């Protein structure tokens, strides 16, 4: 608001369409209607009057440049004037005399920039006044920021169309680079810095959804540590090789912001997952009968506070492909509602578990029987009633016409099925689809975006050194000789053998940034990125080996939340499902798989995609 004379007021604001609006107090009454001055803005306006009957308005456009329009006594300047620059804060302007304007804003480096109107022309270039100002999370933000996007620097430009789409469609959004957070938020490494920023956004900006952009090479990974988890001897696979434990990737780290107390829970202090300060996060001991207290030295409860999704992008082209899919998915259009349920006959209880998902969620009360397909893979006999035997091509054809695809059965990092019958080539058959399903896979390793370490794959440690540990050929427990070999360095670990390091193996800690594995990408990648504009819109899968009942239970809660939501947002549904699962698993029940402990399993299951994604309602 500004006044250019006695008994005169001019007020400005952004409408729901992000255009600039104006209304004036004319001395004895308000102007009848709000005047639309046009433009599309990402910041609140800044306005000044340097003399009677003169107004100058400034705002940031959707390209983050500064724009200006003037009231020149009897008429508005015809078009918004682009003053250039790229800014992270709303503009500020002042007039210290007639026909003089000075405007200021924060650049992408958070330094202060200045440009002046000098009576007849604008100063040619923006003047860098230096300094480092404000948090990148708040720069240019208008009120709460429901969606926080965090990405490597070189992905930021490719994300701008998504930010603009989200804002213009009513989802307040801010995107920040990983490097921009480090001057403002502390942490022992990038994951902790990012988690501190997420906590700040949650508390100060009402952030509900966090989208992590990048695969394990581009966006850092926090690993939880499981003592006593190892692999078998090559000569006796049922006996575990002596090793200190296993590092398991877990994006739950970014969602579980606090220590919580009670049920219903209350938030306590920030949780860095390393209460004992030994550099091992969310520690557990495999097979311990009381993983909630006895072997939980970091006091992690695993309850998520925000909905977190990871987009497994490797490069700018990947980011653009997924951004375009989300924008297309969220555009108003009539979407048919259909569900495909896939079960693996070679996983004994797959049909039973899938039936439990459908009946337990109440889904069939919201859709007709004709909107659900039940496909059985790896089956040569007669299928159960209501099911049909399906080839991988049948699964792909049904998936590309479905709103939701559910899978229960065996899995691997790049396929579904005991014999990996449905793989990346089959997902490619959905490339022409336009429905773009949410895909949920309750199957071992179906969401493995980086391996657990030190076993199973080559990895790089915190010092940048690569390792590839494995059982020494023919090694048996209790027999002298080499037991473990690092195939890269050639080092050996064993018992009473020349040149061997002593057992147990103390595994070098993995780097939070994986090395570039090129085309060796996770099974979420062909669903979300490689087959754009088709494939799927979101994907859920497990990072390692786990029994399927936990995944089926989590999907049941997820679909139940979908059934009752009038304006469903995928992150809301998933967070509700995670919290419901958490509440149901506060003790380890008899015959329950050790993976089921919430602080473990809710990290084992990974959400790939946009947590702020707006789904078609079932109601």
Report what the structure shows.
The radius of gyration is 28 Å and the shape is globular. The chain has three domains: 9-130, Fucose-specific lectin (Neuraminidase, 6 Propeller); 147-285, Gingipain r, domain 1 (Rossmann fold, 3-Layer(aba) Sandwich); 331-446 and 523-608, 3-Layer(aba) Sandwich (Rossmann fold), CATH 3.40.50. Helix content is 20%, strand content 26%. Strand 5 and strand 6 (66-71) form a beta hairpin. With 619 residues, the protein is α/β, with parallel strands linked by helices.
Give a quick set of tags describing it.
619 residues, Rossmann fold, 3 domains, 12 helices, 26% strand
Helical content class: 10-25%
Strand order of the largest sheet: 23-22-21-24-28-35-36
Output mean pLDDT: 93
The DSSP helix count reads 12
Q: Per DSSP, what share of the residues sits in E-state strands of 2 or more residues?
A: 25-35%
Give the CATH class of the largest domain. Answer: Alpha Beta
List the helices and strands and how they pair.
Layout: E1 9-14, E2 20-25, E3 35-38, E4 46-48, E5 55-60, E6 66-71, E7 81-84, E8 92-97, E9 100-106, E10 112-117, E11 127-130, E12 147-151, H1 156-168, E13 173-177, H2 178-181, H3 190-204, E14 209-213, E15 223-227, E16 245-249, H4 252-255, E17 258-261, E18 266-270, E19 281-285, E20 307-311, H5 316-330, E21 339-344, H6 350-361, E22 372-377, E23 388-389, H7 392-399, E24 404-408, E25 411-412, E26 415-416, E27 422-423, H8 424-427, E28 438-442, E29 459-460, E30 466-467, E31 469-471, E32 481-486, E33 492-495, E34 500-502, H9 524-530, E35 538-542, H10 548-564, H11 570-584, H12 598-604, E36 605-608
Parallel strand pairs: 12-13, 12-14, 14-20, 15-19, 21-22, 21-24, 22-23, 24-28, 28-35, 33-34
Antiparallel strand pairs: 1-2, 2-3, 4-5, 5-6, 6-7, 8-9, 9-10, 10-11, 15-16, 17-18, 25-26, 26-27, 29-30, 31-32, 32-33, 35-36
């Amino acid at each position: 608001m500004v006044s250019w004379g006695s008994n005169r007021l001019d007020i400005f604001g952004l409408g729901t369409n992000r255009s600039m609006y104006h209304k004036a107090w004319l001395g004895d009454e308000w102007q009848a209607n709000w005047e639309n001055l046009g433009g599309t803005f990402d910041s609140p306006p800044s306005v000044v009057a340097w003399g009677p009957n003169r107004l100058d308005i400034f705002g940031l456009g959707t390209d983050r440049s500064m724009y200006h329009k003037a009231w020149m006594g009897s008429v508005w300047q015809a078009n918004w004037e682009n003053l250039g620059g790229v800014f992270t804060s709303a503009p500020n302007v002042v007039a210290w005399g007639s026909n003089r304007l000075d405007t200021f804003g924060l650049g992408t480096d958070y330094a202060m920039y200045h440009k002046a109107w000098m009576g007849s022309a604008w100063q040619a270039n923006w003047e860098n006044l230096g300094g480092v100002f404000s948090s990148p999370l708040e720069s240019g933000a208008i009120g709460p920021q429901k969606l926080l996007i965090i990405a490597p620097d070189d992905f930021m430009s490719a994300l701008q169309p998504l930010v603009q789409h989200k804002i213009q469609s009513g989802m307040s959004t801010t995107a920040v680079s990983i490097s921009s957070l480090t001057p403002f938020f502390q942490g022992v490494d990038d994951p902790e810095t990012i988690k501190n920023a997420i906590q700040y956004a949650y508390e100060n900006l009402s952030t509900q959804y966090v989208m992590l952009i990048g695969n394990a090479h581009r966006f850092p990974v926090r690993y939880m540590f499981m003592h006593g988890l190892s692999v078998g001897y090559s000569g006796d696979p049922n006996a575990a090789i002596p090793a200190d434990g296993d590092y398991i990737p877990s994006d739950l780290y970014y969602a579980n912001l606090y220590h919580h107390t009670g049920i219903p829970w209350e938030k306590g202090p920030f949780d860095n997952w390393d209460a004992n300060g030994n550099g091992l996060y969310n520690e557990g001991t495999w097979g311990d009968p009381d993983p909630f207290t006895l072997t939980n030295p970091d006091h992690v409860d695993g309850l998520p506070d925000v909905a977190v999704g990871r987009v497994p992008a490797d490069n700018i082209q990947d980011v653009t492909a997924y951004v375009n899919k989300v924008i297309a998915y969220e555009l108003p259009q009539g979407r048919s509602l259909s569900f495909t349920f896939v079960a693996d006959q070679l996983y004994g209880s797959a049909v039973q578990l899938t039936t439990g998902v459908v009946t337990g969620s109440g889904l069939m009360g919201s859709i007709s029987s004709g909107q659900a397909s039940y496909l059985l893979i790896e089956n040569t006999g007669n299928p159960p009633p209501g099911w049909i035997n399906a080839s991988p091509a049948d699964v792909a054809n049904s998936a590309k016409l479905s709103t939701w695809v559910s899978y229960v059965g065996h899995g691997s990092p790049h396929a579904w099925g005991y014999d990996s019958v449905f793989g990346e080539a089959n997902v490619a058959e959905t490339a022409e689809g336009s429905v773009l399903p949410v895909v949920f896979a309750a199957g071992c390793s179906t969401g493995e975006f980086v391996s657990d370490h030190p076993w199973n794959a080559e990895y790089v440690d915190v010092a940048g050194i690569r390792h590839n540990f494995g059982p020494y050929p023919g090694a048996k427990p209790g027999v002298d000789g080499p037991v473990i070999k690092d195939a890269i360095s050639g080092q050996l670990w064993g018992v009473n053998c020349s040149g061997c390091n002593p057992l147990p193996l103390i595994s070098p800690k993995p780097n939070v940034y994986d090395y570039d594995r090129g085309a060796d990408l996770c099974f979420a990648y062909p669903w979300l990125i490689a087959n754009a504009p088709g494939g799927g819109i979101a994907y859920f899968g497990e990072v390692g080996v786990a029994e399927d009942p936990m995944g089926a239970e989590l999907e049941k809660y997820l679909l139940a939340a979908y059934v009752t939501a009038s304006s469903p947002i995928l992150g809301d549904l998933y967070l509700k499902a995670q919290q419901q699962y958490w509440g149901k698993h506060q003790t380890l029940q008899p015959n329950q798989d050790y993976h089921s402990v919430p602080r473990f399993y809710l990290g084992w299951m990974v959400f790939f995609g946009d947590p702020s994604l707006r789904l078609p309602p079932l109601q």
